[in-house]
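Exam revision sheet. Question 4 asks you to relate a sequence to its structure. Input first:
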Amino acid sequence: MQITIDPKARPCPGVENAIALAEDALRRGETVYAVGPLIHNRREVERLEGLGLRIISSKTLEEKEFRAQCAGKCFILRAHGEPVEIVSLAKSCRMKIIDATCPIVRHSHEIVDQHVRDGWRIVIVGNPNHPEVVALLTRAGDTGMVIASSKEAETVDIENRTLVMAQTTVDPHIFSEVRRILSRRISGIKIVDTTCRFLQYRQQEIKVFANAQDVVIFIAGKSSSNGRLLFEIAKSVNPNSFFVEGTSDLDLSFLKDNVRVGISGGASTPRWQFEEMRGFLETLVKENPKGLKNRKGGSFLCWMRKSRPKMG
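Answer key, structure tokens:
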């Protein structure tokens, strides 16, 4: 088995920054709170919790008992950004704010703030339940709305003097289609592409990497938007791509001697999870010197080569 970690796979700068800020504060002995997962990678958040990170709900910030003892303790803003009400609550009880908001997301905040002040309505193309979008909507106030699909773009009632922007991790094809439809239907709108450039590069890189493997093991958090997007791209060029959060999710029936196994992942997946998977596979090979067996019988490699579509 030839095992290769995608050389381009790594956390995006925003995720790396959030992890580093949390680790630095915890190693200084600070008490650090966050409302919900710091990033969309369950196992990395669990690692940070092991270092002392405390995950609380937004309601906890309002509780009298909590507010009586939280002054001087740290509150870290998640990489996706926080609703303005959450930040205000943390500040009102004199917590020290650690701003781990992704710089790209922070730029989106600034765009919304400026346009709201100038009297524009705000349309965000993305998932209305995503934390980034929820936070943006709190900045837009009554002027904000979300469009999740091209179908919605065909029927939504939008006024002139409307800014159209994107959730940073939205599928670029969806954003492109929505902006095309809205530009055709409505005059007087302004479109700003706020999609993440790092993620755009990764979309091209994952295609090249996935096409060079027999099997792709794609590691990401189940709640990660960027992870799902990149995985679907990998699977589109290599149907033998499998989404996992860790080694316990791995279906060993898809592994066989002499198969090229590529390990990649989302923009919220830290390097240690790639190394963990490689170590697991290498140990598996060493412990099975007579070769790995395909549970379904027959030559797995032969089946793999026959079933995989040729790239034109």
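Marking note for examiners. The chain is about 45% helix and 15% strand.
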